[in-house]
Amino acid sequence: MKIKDIQLKIILDSRGNPTLEAEFFPETPTDADLTRTNAENSQSSSVLSRSSSVVSSVPAGKSKGSYEAAVLEPELAMEKFGQIKKSILEKDFKDQKEFDYFLISLDGTPTKKNLGGNLILVLSMCFARLFARHNNLELHDYLRSLLSTFNFQLSTQSFPHPIFNVINGGAHAKSSLDFQEFQIIPQSEDFAIGLSLGEEFYKKLQRILEDKFGKDKVLLGDEAGFSCPFSSNEEALEVMYELIEKNKYPLRIGLDTAATQFFKENKYQVGGSGYSSEQIFDYYKSIINRYNIISLEDPFSEDSFDDFAHLEKEMGGAVLVITDDLTVTNKERLKKSIETKSGNTILIKLTQIGTVSETLEVAALAYENNWKTIVSHRSGETLDDFIADLAVGIGAWGIKAGAPAKPERMAKYNRLLEIWQSQLKV
């Protein structure tokens, strides 16, 4: 498949920060493109050009692991793109891997610091969309087919659990909460029911928090979760747990502590006190049992493989011990985590590694070693819904896309609902 043209521009993400958006135009439109265009305007070649193109944009995280792919300022990325655009347009790419590794070779660095992981990723995502359309495939079906190129084939079709970040803390909100995400996770296998539960819980939680703190004290964090003057992490958990119990909701609580953010001077600074690794371990155990917590993400700092392994061994698989900053969607980091048994679930973020192919390779490695995957957005998001198709395509256990509010978060959930409903009709 040859690409006729690529347009790159700077847009604003959900935090108002500049990020990249790419548009790919195919050399030859598909039959589906022609049919759609003829229906719209049989006379206009410009309409054909627009309807045949695909668009992708990249988000950005505020809470980042040290081992993530490098990110360039969008203005510099635009300059870099100008230097490589001709090379891309001259080639006829046979598949996703060839395209992605061509960009990696152009960059020539282990961390993608030359071209930037954000520039490489937005091009990789756009190519995936264009190649899927070129082959008349839904994006999630195309991504699933790519798993086989890494010698792995999903044996079952599963649908991701939505993971709603309903209370924001840490780097994602102006509050005293140490932990970054307080989540609810529907236990229903029906995605539509799960989404409905999340929306209902979110609205009831808002009313409870407004009664508790006053409307002017209930703000929204980066991921559309509520930001309030809680006195402690436990107070936030208590409010959530009581609401679940009172309404007998089939919901479990998940936490992303993002411990790297509050690990200072070899102590975990929580609630104004400094905890050793063993003390924070005991603290986690107590709140897991008290609030029936199903998942714990980044409970220790980003190099604490042994502490992750200790928690995984102690909890015996009863809790999803999720690695994010520890593994950063990186094959070598995941290999070490597997060898040391430092977790059982990996968070998948396209932006951490920088290409679709490398992301899928990490997912395949996780599955080969009986780990689960959870696909995640970033705190600074766009309206791009690529991760919804990615979560379905790789059969992820769950997807994090923030609270069920704000357009950039709902874009992902609505796309998942669309896929879910289409699968019910088959």
From TrEMBL:
Residues 42-58 have a biased composition (Low complexity). Its EC number is 4.2.1.11. (2R)-2-phosphoglycerate binds at residues 180, 349, 378-379, 400. Mg(2+) is required for catalysis and for stabilizing the dimer. Binds a second Mg(2+) ion via substrate during catalysis. Mg(2+) binds at residues 256, 297, 324. The active site is at residues 223, 349. Residues 3-143 form the Enolase N-terminal domain. It is an enzyme of class 4 (lyase). Residues 156-426 form the Enolase C-terminal TIM barrel domain. Pathway: Carbohydrate degradation; glycolysis; pyruvate from D-glyceraldehyde 3-phosphate: step 4/5. It comes from the Bacteria. Residues 20-61 are annotated as: Disordered. Substrate binds at residues 172, 181, 297, 324, 376-379, 400. GO terms for biological process: glycolytic process. Its cofactor is Mg(2+). Transmembrane segments: none annotated. It is found in: Cytoplasm; Secreted; Cell surface. GO terms for cellular component: cell surface; extracellular region; phosphopyruvate hydratase complex. Catalyzes the reversible conversion of 2-phosphoglycerate (2-PG) into phosphoenolpyruvate (PEP). It is essential for the degradation of carbohydrates via glycolysis. Belongs to the enolase family. This is Enolase. It comes from Candidatus Wolfebacteria bacterium GWA1_42_9.
